[in-house]
Amino acid sequence: MKWVGLTGGIATGKSTVAKILRDLGLPVVDADYLSREVTRPGAKGYEEIVKHFGPGVLLEDGEINRARLGEIIFQNEDKRRILEGLLHPLIQERRAQERRNLEHKNCELAFYDVPLLFEKKLESEFDATVLVYSRIEEQKLRLKERDGLSDEQIEARLAAQLPIDEKLKLADYIILNHGNIADLKMNVQSVVKELQN
């Protein structure tokens, strides 16, 4: 099975690309989903978050308040590193399980959708890497419109990731996301075709 790391900067359209891949019948394992899975109430990641960040990061129903936790970690580099150190081993274990499941099903091509692929130096775990690329101005506009973030919040989130132009140099394949959805679908199909050869 060809195991492909799919990444992009925040608000580059990675989730849209993952949906297009799924619509093409290709399996996509989502790191964010695995993160939510290991941090649901009762899971080990949940317990670790409450232990290190306190009950102030919980909603009234006991779920993790992701918005509050995000505020904390994007304003404090040390706390972000602590959170990543707690969750990444748990997510890595789940990722390996998902990969084994797909290999058992004899999949020929599968993707792992992971925002911090290059930041966490995960390239060696994949047969290829694909970057969803948008210009920084487009990222900022999407973050403002989609998430209603302030300029300061946008800069903090962008600073937590490797600059998109640096990721561009590291990726094996690039999916450009500058135009409309039809152009994006064509770009995705083109990269899939290359990966299948």
CATH topology of the largest domain: Rossmann fold
Query: Structural class, judged by helices and strands?
Result: alpha/beta
Q: How large is the radius of gyration?
A: 17 Å
How big a fraction of the residues is strand? 5-15%
Query: How many separate domains make up the residues?
Result: 2
SSE order in H/E notation? Answer: EHEHHHHEEHHHEH
Helix content: 55-70%
Description:
The protein is α/β, with parallel strands linked by helices and 197 residues long. The protein has 2 domains: 116 residues, Rossmann fold (3-Layer(aba) Sandwich), CATH 3.40.50; 57 residues, no CATH class. It contains 9 helices and 5 strands. The longest helix has 28 residues. 25% of the residues are buried. The model has no long low-confidence stretch (mean pLDDT 95).
Question: How are the SSEs ordered, and which strands pair?
Answer:
Blueprint: E1 2-8, H1 14-23, E2 28-30, H2 31-38, H3 44-53, H4 66-75, H5 77-104, E3 109-113, E4 128-133, H6 136-147, H7 151-159, H8 164-170, E5 173-176, H9 181-196
Parallel strand pairs: 1-3, 1-4, 2-3, 4-5
Helix pairs in contact: 2-5, 3-5, 4-5
What is the compact description of this entry?
With 197 residues, the chain is an alpha/beta fold. It has helices spanning 14-23, 31-38, 44-53, 66-75, 77-104, 136-147, 151-159, 164-170, 181-196, and strands spanning 2-8, 28-30, 109-113, 128-133, 173-176.
